[in-house]
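Consider the tokenized backbone below.
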């Protein structure tokens, strides 16, 4: 069985966020324990497993995502990686619908090589855990927001881009917060001309100390920064060591996430599923 590693939200190898992708034959998923073991072996932020659904189903494919330690409800970069593999191998063309724990999601490949994900916009509500988060992050929190059940993250606004880039959080303290992970963000420093806001994502509670580029987090970043900056379409830079760019377009209850991807490993899973 083939397994691929794809760098998502980047146009060059060894940047963006790597994801494992396994396209399965039709039929039910293998047991959860098998999927989890493969994801632990791949040991990336997420490994995606997809299989085709029968005609008449709500979507063309079923899709699940696993970190090295648990299954997650929503994942952007591994969805982009899956769509990239499907389009570059001729498995699918145009728009693909996926049935997931986060609802039915669509991906659309453009002639220029970009892929756009149609995801639910995260509902932001002001949170009162900014003080606790600030202590864990080691930085002053300007505002904090809960991001709803699908994400389960805390979104934290910090003073400026430099603060986001140089942040060195206490990961053990972050893991004790009552959230899947913590998204930190700030407006881009003036004059860069490439992106509008920056972010980082820390998820030690789900086995991800720092995620290189978190597509799903941008469903919360998009409504925050579109409201602040007055534009529906923006570009976010996730300022991890690998970095990656995500173009976000806010459409009410849906957010479009656009990026590129590069396949860097194409191999064989010898144990099978």
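A designed sequence for it:
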């Amino acid at each position: 069985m083939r397994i691929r590693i794809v760098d998502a939200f980047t146009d060059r190898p060894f940047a963006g966020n790597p994801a494992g992708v396994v396209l399965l034959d039709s039929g039910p998923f293998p047991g959860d324990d098998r999927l989890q073991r493969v994801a632990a072996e791949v040991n990336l932020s997420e490994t995606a497993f997809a299989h085709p659904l029968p005609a008449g189903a709500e979507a063309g494919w079923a899709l699940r995502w696993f970190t090295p330690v648990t299954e997650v409800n929503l994942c952007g970069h591994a969805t982009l990686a899956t769509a990239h593999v499907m389009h570059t191998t001729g498995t699918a063309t145009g728009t693909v619908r996926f049935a997931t724990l986060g609802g039915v999601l669509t991906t659309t490949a453009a002639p220029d090589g970009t892929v756009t994900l149609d995801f639910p916009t995260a509902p932001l509500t002001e949170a009162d855990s900014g003080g606790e988060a600030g202590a864990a992050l080691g930085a002053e929190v300007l505002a904090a927001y809960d991001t709803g059940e699908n994400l389960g993250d805390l979104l934290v606004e910090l003073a400026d881009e430099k603060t986001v880039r140089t942040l060195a959080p206490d990961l053990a303290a972050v893991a004790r917060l009552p959230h899947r992970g913590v998204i930190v963000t700030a407006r881009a420093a003036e004059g860069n001309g490439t992106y509008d806001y920056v972010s980082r994502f820390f998820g030690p509670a789900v086995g991800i100390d720092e995620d290189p580029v978190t597509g799903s987090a941008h469903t919360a970043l998009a409504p925050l920064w579109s409201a602040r900056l007055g534009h529906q379409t923006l570009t976010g830079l996730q300022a991890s060591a690998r970095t990656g760019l995500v173009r976000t377009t806010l459409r009410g209850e849906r957010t479009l996430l656009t990026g590129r991807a590069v396949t860097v490993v194409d191999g064989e899973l010898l144990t099978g599923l």
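Helices lie at 32-42, 76-88, 130-137, 161-166, 171-176, 218-229.
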